[in-house]
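Lecture 7 notes: from sequence to structure.

We start with a single chain of 198 residues. Read the sequence below before looking at the structure.
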Amino acid sequence: MKKILLLSSLLATILLFTGCFGGIKPRSKEILQQGTVNGTTYTNSYFSFEMQIDTSWIQKEIERTKYKRPFDADLLRISKYEEDSNYIDDGYLYIYAEKTNPFTNDPKKYLMDLKEGVEFFTDLTDSTSEVVETKIDGIPFHMLSLKMVDEENEVTTHQVFYATPIKDYWLVISKTYCYEEQQAVIEKMFQSIRFKRK
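Now the structure, written as tokens:
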């Protein structure tokens, strides 16, 4: 019934094994910032980007990490419904950070590990794309697409993951939607992402 919630929990488990080892000395002395929302603008100084959010959707209250350099951290989650609602056809834009592996910063491998983990641990993934190169506001990212069909409830869920290494972290942006209306709202927010060049 709750494919989206199950997949999200599964991805959190998979990502735990695709990051780095906590004892490695950080390559950057900067402290991870989870970002702030001012009106309709989300800004993150650590990753040097900002975006416009749709205030008609629900912004999750992000739990602030008590660590200066956490293993991972939620940055932003904007959804059609409350996160703990029973809606199986929710749509949301989710941005998070995860420590990079000190031995490789290959985003293709990062997403391939995620893809293989999903395919190994669950049969909910009806189709997955190959990992491809793309850009967000001119910044190189790699992208992975998943599609799940819930025949019992007649719901098709699409998820798209974008990942790139910045400083000591993977910046991961994911889009999840079930309907064209959700996709349009998410895409408008996604297209507003702007990175600041030094």
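The chain is about 20% helix and 35% strand. Keep this in mind for problem set 3.
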